[in-house]
């Protein structure tokens, strides 16, 4: 299964963007999906995640502003980002995990750049 992220771009502070992550196969095959981001000089961090049962979790820095969702019919995961600020500037990666004999299998999209101008 491959993941392809899209939807990044340049947006002014206070604006919105919606990122998409399309899976080449069935998205319900993943037991967990998430969006990560990596800003220049910083470590990659989890922004939002959704488990197969539908439970969602968010980083404190994005709670109330970002919403993660999936469309199983389209095999696509989304990240709606509102009230963007300069600290949200980063490359955003989508991730999917499937069970493995020991641990999990990680699948990553190629990343999409979000730049927020102040």
Any descriptors?
single chain, 118 residues, mainly beta, seven-stranded mixed β-sheet, four-stranded antiparallel β-sheet, 11 strands, 0% helix, 55% strand
Percentage of residues in DSSP E strands: over 45%
SS-derived structural category = mainly beta
Tell me the radius of gyration. 14 Å
Largest sheet: 7 strands, mixed
Provide the helix percentage.
under 10%
- Summed up, the helix count is 0
What's the count of strands? 11
Shape: globular
Cα distance spanning the termini = 37 Å
Rounded mean pLDDT is: 96
Low-confidence stretches: none
Order of helix and strand elements from N to C terminus: EEEEEEEEEEE
Q: What would you say this structure looks like, in words?
A:
The protein starts with a strand and ends with a strand. The protein has strands spanning 3-6, 9-12, 17-23, 32-38, 45-51, 56-58, 66-71, 76-81, 90-99, 104-108, 112-117. It is built from no helices and eleven strands. The model has no long low-confidence stretch (mean pLDDT 96). With 118 residues, it is mainly beta. A hairpin with a 4-residue loop joins strand 7 (66-71) and strand 8.
């Amino acid at each position: 299964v491959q993941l392809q992220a899209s939807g990044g771009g340049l947006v002014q502070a206070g604006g919105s963007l919606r990122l998409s992550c399309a899976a080449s196969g069935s998205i319900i095959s993943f037991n967990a999906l998430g969006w990560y981001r990596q800003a220049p000089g910083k470590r990659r961090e989890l922004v939002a995640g959704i488990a197969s049962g539908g439970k969602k979790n968010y980083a404190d820095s994005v709670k109330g502003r970002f919403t993660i969702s999936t469309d199983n019919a389209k095999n696509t995961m989304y990240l709606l980002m509102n009230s963007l600020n300069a600290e949200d500037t980063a490359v955003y990666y989508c991730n999917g995990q499937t069970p493995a004999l020991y641990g999990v299998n990680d699948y990553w999209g190629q990343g999409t750049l979000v730049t927020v101008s102040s």
